[in-house]
Amino acid sequence: GAGVSQSPSNKVTEKGKDVELRCDPISGHTALYWYRQSLGQGLEFLIYFQGNSAPDKSGLPSDRFSAERTGGSVSTLTIQRTQQEDSAVYLCASSLVQGAEKLFFGSGTQLSVL
Amino acid sequence: GNSVTQMEGPVTLSEEAFLTINCTYTATGYPSLFWYVQYPGEGLQLLLKATKADDKGSNKGFEATYRKETTSFHLEKGSVQVSDSAVYFCALQRSQGAQKLVFGQGTRLTINP
Predict the structure, then answer these.
(1) pLDDT in tens, A76-105
(2) Which run of H or E residues covers position B6?
(3) CA distance A84 to chain B (A)
(4) Residue B32's CB: how many other CB atoms inside 10 A?
(5) Which residues of B touch A4 (CB under 8 A)?
(6) Facing residues of B5 across strands?
(7) Among the listed residues B13, B95, B96, B100, the one whose alpha carbon sits nearest the alpha carbon of residue A47
(8) Residue A4 contacts residue B43 (beta carbons within 8 Å)
(9) Positive or negative CA dihedral for B10, B15, B16, B17?
(10) Which residues 35-94 of A have a C-beta within 8 angstroms of B?
(11) Rg (chain B; Cα; Å)
């Protein structure tokens, strides 16, 4: 597609349920990022994929969070046993080359945990 | 650690007013600095950047100068338009080729006709 696509755009779930968020990066982009934007907060880095290298998971807030990237393209962010503090906008971004000089962001998934 | 602090919003201005959105940073070494913009219903997109001290980034009438002495990268525009209404994010990259950006909290700008 023309841009980074994220789905769903909105997700409402109950506390304790698992959720999966999907990101389709721009075709050919080797780097993929997940960020989280909580109300009144800046963008918080979660995880970074670059090609076939091991991902940088240093931003994941707990072991309830995981992400994978299949075939170097589509990525899925999974949150297990969701908590109310997980409510946020989850943003995916991709870039053509390694390094973050120019990121292309999706419109995000608004996650609400009731 | 590396961090970015932006002026708190929201900011509301009239069309043709002068805009300044303050951004200061804390970083070791020589970071690159960026402004990203998020228009309503769209993803963040790069507005401008500067990679070394005294560089000026510019785009769409916006400018920001990398001031190492004051660790700042304030965003300015001489005459804003309604279409500039958006959320603006200041960000730093620890060094060229570094893997991630550190973002500020964003400043919501509303321009009234």
Answers:
(1) 999 999 999 999 999 999 998 766 678 899
(2) strand B3-6
(3) 20
(4) 25
(5) 43
(6) B24
(7) B100
(8) yes
(9) negative
(10) 35, 37, 40-43, 45, 48, 50, 56, 59, 91, 93
(11) 13
Interatomic CA distance for residues A108 and A43, integer angstroms? 12
Reported as a single tens digit per residue, the pLDDT across B59-102 is 999 999 999 999 999 999 999 999 999 999 999 988 766 678 89
Q: Which two tokens stand for residue A11?
A: 């997700």
Who contacts B9 (Cβ-Cβ below 8 Å, separation ≥6)? B106, B107, B108, B109
Residues with Cβ within 8 Å of A54's Cβ and at least 6 positions away in sequence, in order, are none
Q: CA B31, CA B98: separation in Å to the nearest integer?
A: 9
Within 8 A by CB and 6+ apart from B16, the residues are B79, B80, B81
Handedness of CA B5, B10, B16, B17 (dihedral sign): negative
